[in-house]
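Before surveying the methods themselves, we first show a specimen of the format, giving the amino acid sequence and C-alpha cells:

:::
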Amino acid sequence: MMKPSRGWARLLCPKIAREEHHSSRKETGSFTEFIMTRPAEGLAHDKLFSPESLRKYVMSSAHDTTTGSHLGIKKTREKIMSDFYWPGIYNDVTRYCRSCDICPKTLYNETSSRIPDVSSQTRDDPDVPSYVAVVEDCDYEADKGHVQDNLTGDEQGSEDLPEIGTWGQKEDVAIVKIGEALTYDQNRELQLLVQRFSEIFSDRPGDTNLAEHRIDLTSDVPVRQTPYPVPFTLKSSLKKEIQQMEDLGIIREIDSSYASPVVVVKKKDGSNRICIDFRRLNKITVTDPQPVPSPAESFLGMSEDKYFSKLDLTKGYHQIRVRPSDVHRTAFVTMDVGGTLASPGGTLQEFESGQPSCETKKCELGATQVDFLGHRLGRGTVGLQDCNVEKVKDAPRPTTKKDIRSFLGLFGYYQPFIPNFAVVAAPLSDLTRKGQPNKIVLGEPQERAYAALKKAVISKPILVLPDVNKEFVLRTDASDIGLGATLLQNRDGHIFPVAYASRKLLDRERRYSVMERECLGNVWGIKKFALYLYGKQFTLQTDHRPLEFLKVYKFDNPRIMRWVLALQSFVFRVEHIKGRVMWELIFLAEFLYNILKIYY
C-alpha cells in the first residue's frame, strides 16, 4: 500500500497524524480517512474524503496559498488528489482554477509579470517556506540548457505550458469587468460564464454571418474624390492603422473606379479612428431606413432592474461583410504616408524593377538645388523658378474680365509667397463681380494693386521649408477687407516665414465687431495651416490684446464661444505683439531673399 506524504495536508488539518495501520474508514477531524485501491495496478492509496462544505477550503489552500503558488489546473489537481478525493473532483478543480482572479490565464496585464508574486501574500503558517525559498531549494546541478528541469522539476511537462502561457505573449483572453456589488456565488457564476464563452471576448474583430451590407445606387456614375491632406503628426498613426486593418483582413488593395477620401478623428481615449468620407456616395445610395428606439424608449421598464450588463463590439462595423458585388464601391484613397527614398540607389532600384525610362538630359543627381513643380528647392528654402518670374514680368495689362481672372490665377499659384495677397488684389478681384462691365479700365486703386503684385513676384521671394520637428509660430491679423495669416519658424535665432495665407471677408463678416473679426482671423488661420499645427504645440501671435485670454476667459459672445470650442483639438499658447510687428511681415520675404540670394 502506498503511503501519502501528507506534507501540505498536515498543514491544512493539523489533527491528521500518520498511522502505520489503517482501518477501512476512520474519522479524522472533519475529514474521513479511507483507502482507495486500483485492482488493475495492485495499488492502494490512503486518502481523505472531503465533505462538500470543506471542498472549497481544500481547493483554496492547494491553489491560492504560498504553497500553492497558483499552479495550473493539472498541477493543482494532482496536488489535491495526492491526499484528498471526492466525487466530481476533476470538474470542481478545473472550474476553481479558471475562476481565479490572480492567475495569468484569467487576467492578463502586459506590464505585469507572468507569475504573480505570491511571496508577498499572507502566509497561513510560519513553517511554510516562502516562494523564494522554494526556488532556492531547486537543484541547479542539472545539465545546461535544461532550465525547465532546474526550476520546475521532472513533473513539469510541455503539456502544462499552454495553461501558463509564454512570456511576453499576448493572449486573447479578455478582461471583463464584473460588478463589485455581486455576492461571491454571483461573481463566480459570471466568471464561469465568461470562461464558457471566452471565444467571443477578443481584441480582434470577428466575422459575423448575421448580416451583409448592401450598397444599391441610384446612379452608375462612379464617385471619385481627391484624398484629403494628412497632418504630419498623424501620418505614422494612419500608416500603422491601415497596415493593421490589412493584416486583419478588413481591407485589401483593389482597382476601382470609386474613390473616397480618408478622415482621421480623435477617439475618447486619445487614439485615432480611421473614417472614410462617404458623403458623396451616400447621396446616390438607396436608403433603407430602420427604426431606432430613442433613449427614452430604451429606458422604459428598467426602473426595477438592479444589475446591468453591457457588450461592446470590437470594431463593430468592421465585423459586417460587404456584399461581394459592392466591395469596389467602398474603395478609399489616401495621400502618400510613406517616407522618401533618400538614396539615389534605392530610387533607381525601384525604377529598375518597375521598368520606366528617364530622359537623360532632364535628370539631375546630387544637386544642391533643383527646380520642381514650378519652384526652386535647395538649402532648406523654396523660391520661384526664373522662367515663371519672367512670365509674370511679361504679363500683359488686363483689359477684360477674362484677362483679370487669368492675371489673378497666375498670381494665385504663388499666393503662399505674397503677404496679404487677397487684400492687395481686392481692387482687381472686385472688377470680376457680377454686374461689372466686361470691358474694364484700371483706375488708381487697380493700378496700385497691379504694380504691387508684380513687384512681389519679381523680387523673387523666398520661404523656408517647414521643419516638423521644430515649433511653429502663427501670426494672424484682420482688417475691414480681409484676413491674413503667416506661418513662421525660428532658424538660428531669426524668425522666417514658411507660408502666407489670406482671404477676403464676406459681406456679412465685414459687419462683425473688431474683436469678432480678429477672432475669426485666428480660427481661420489655424484651420488653414492645420496640416502643420495639428497635434503639435505652437504659438499664436495676435495684435488684439483681448484675444490673449482666448483659452481661459469665458466670453459672453456666443459666436466667439463657438470659435473657441472649434479650437479645442489644437494645443497652443496666445501671445500679444505690437501692430507694427505685423506690418513688418510684408517686407520679410524681400529681406530673406537679400540674405539668402547667394544660393541663387
Notes: The chain is about 30% helix and 15% strand.
